[in-house]
Amino acid sequence: METERSAAAENDLALLVGRTHKTFIIRLKAGDKVQTHRGVLNHDDLIGQPWGSQVFSHQGSSFFFLQPSLADILLNLPRNTQILYPKDIGFILVTMGIGPGMHIVEAGTGSGAFTTALAFTVGEKGHVYSYENRAEMQNLAKKNLTRFELEARVSFILRDIAQGFDQKDADALFLDLPNPEDYISQVKAALKPGGFFGSILPTTNQVSRLLVALGREDFGFIEVCETLLRYYKPVADRLRPADRMIAHTGYLIFARAVLPAKAEQENQINSNN
């Protein structure tokens, strides 16, 4: 991900948007070409072009030439599984306080969409430790991170997390697994005191099982929510909701790794009650 400049340079990521909003994300390399359904564009003709300009294929078809946002990148990732949507990812990052320089653990790498967002967010001084027990999924995630030159910020670990995490005192830990309740003791051991825990689950019965496990391991500040995002048709004289929306994608569960009260503190609390 590059800093903002007025014109494209070699090795920049670029987003081409066609008339029907079909998109292509490319990394600009001298001598390369991009093949589209509406003709070929030479990278040499794109390097040096101002961002936001219109460019044309050899057939004369027009494209808008833009720097991609993180959401553009995530939605264009090659995938074998369902990815977290930007609407959920943004809320997760803010709620869990994830920012530059932090050390984050995740399990359930999948195609690497959330891993990409984490690597982008923690910056060059942070790091992401991503656990996955399926080699084919981990290999795809590695390719996706390499494509966007973020692989140096991620350590990929191929292992069942029932064996625990190598990290201690992690700032935050996120589980994208169908049975996170089975690993909460391992999560507690990996987090620093006060560290953030998060998970996403599709059904309420899964959430209930996770809540029981979080209570058993003395997690505090537990929250359950979901994010609903509705777009509107941007036509000034007939503004109304779009015909389709991405509604329920999953329940988000958040908690903090708090320290249990000492015995003398518990006695004091009980005596006051």
Explain what you see.
- The protein is an alpha/beta fold and 273 residues long.
- The chain folds into 2 domains: 13-68, Vcp-like ATPase, Chain A, domain 2; 71-265, Rossmann fold (3-Layer(aba) Sandwich), CATH 3.40.50.150.
- Helices cover 27% and strands 28% of the residues.
- The chain has 8 helices and 15 strands.
- The chain has helices spanning 43-46, 70-75, 86-95, 113-122, 135-147, 184-190, 204-216, 263-272; strands at 13-17, 23-27, 33-36, 39-42, 53-56, 62-66, 103-107, 127-132, 154-158, 170-175, 191-201, 220-225, 232-233, 240-241, 251-256.
- Strand 7, helix 4 (113-122) and strand 8 form a beta-alpha-beta unit.
- The longest helix is centred in the middle third of the chain and has 13 residues, at 135-147.
What attributes characterize this protein structure?
273 residues; alpha/beta; Vcp-like ATPase, Chain A, domain 2; 2 domains; 8 helices; 15 strands; 27% helix
Q: Strand-and-helix sequence, N→C?
A: EEEEHEEHHEHEHEEHEHEEEEH
Quick one: biggest sheet?
7 strands, mixed
Portion of residues within helices: 25-40%
Number of strands: 15
Counted up, domains total: 2
Could you please say which CATH topology of the largest domain applies here?
A: Rossmann fold
Output the radius of gyration: 22 Å
Write down the overall mean pLDDT: 93
Query: Can you identify the CATH class of the largest domain?
Result: Alpha Beta
- Please state roughly what percent of the residues sit in beta strands, choosing from under 5%, 5-15%, 15-25%, 25-35%, 35-45% or over 45%: 25-35%
Distance between the termini: 55 Å
What characteristic shape results from the CA principal axes?
A: globular
Number of helices: 8
Q: Kindly report the spatial arrangement of strands forming the biggest sheet.
A: 9-8-7-10-11-15-12
CATH superfamily of the largest domain: Vaccinia Virus protein VP39
Low-confidence stretches: none
| Second CATH tier, the architecture of the largest domain | 3-Layer(aba) Sandwich
SS content category? alpha/beta
